[in-house]
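Hi again,

Forgot to attach this to my earlier email, sorry! This is the prediction with adenosine-5'-triphosphate bound. I've pasted everything inline since the attachment limit keeps bouncing my files.
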Amino acid sequence: MSIMTELAARDRVFNFLTPTDSPVDVRHGPILYLEDVNVSFDGFRAINNLNLTIDDGELRCIIGPNGAGKTTMMDIITGKTAPDTGSVWFGSRHNLLTMSEPDIASLGIGRKFQKPTVFEALTVFENLELAMAADKRVFPTLTAQMKPKHRERIEEVLETINLQDLRDRPAGILSHGQKQWLEIGMLLMQKPRLLLVDEPVAGMTEQEMERTAELLTSLAGKQSVVVVEHDMGFVRSIARKVTVLHQGSVLAEGSMDQVSNDPEVIKVYLGEEA
Ligand SMILES: Nc1ncnc2c1ncn2[C@@H]1O[C@H](COP(=O)(O)OP(=O)(O)OP(=O)(O)O)[C@@H](O)[C@H]1O
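Structure tokens for the complex follow:
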């Protein structure tokens, strides 16, 4: 695939990278609020009276069996799927159900899909630079001299994702885990308010999982982070509050200890893993 073709695809993934002039208002409540959300696909209720609240700066883990509705929930938040009924608010000002997918993204909701999609031929630094310039208005100036504040931002993100030593290496030589961190870094370039992260540690080594746990916990506070993950060891290592989805609804919510001792959760999901 040519760089330009990849760029076009990248633009779809990172289309939130347009600065917003309409800040999110969390003074009186949560950053994300879903109430009584329902979605059916051909008569099958994939999301069933779902209620979910994420506080500003929170790190929330979402777990649940296959088909519980986790991906569909993320699709609703990002505007990819329109619910049949319910409310979805980003802060108290933005009704996400009235907004398009690119507009929701431009508010600062970044989504990390399971598979990393970095530009393998470009260096780590250039990938971050490109993420900053993904805004079509900035892209033509990409070869112009970078402003110090942009360079500083890249340095900051390189440090956060711990890839300073590999900054000038092509992304293609990175390990799977390092590519995942780079992609998280690319999302961070525009300081999103909410990051949705889908199965970040699938395919990672133990050591990479530990580093990912450090990275995600370090991001919380600065931004809100919602992590969907099946690896219970990993969830336990980062979890503050855990939400268990089952058949499109919240089955249980609380600390990892609370949910993993809940008989219903054990029955439908954790089983012998608990
Ligand atoms: N576009 C669609 N058309 C029809 N059915 C769908 C569609 N998207 C999702 N579903 C169904 O809705 C249910 C919820 O799926 P979803 O992918 O949200 O679950 P999940 O919790 O993310 O599962 P997994 O852990 O396997 O990724 C599943 O039964 C799925 O088959």
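Confidence is low (pLDDT under 50) at residues 15-21. DSSP finds ten helices and ten strands in the chain.

That should be everything now.

G.
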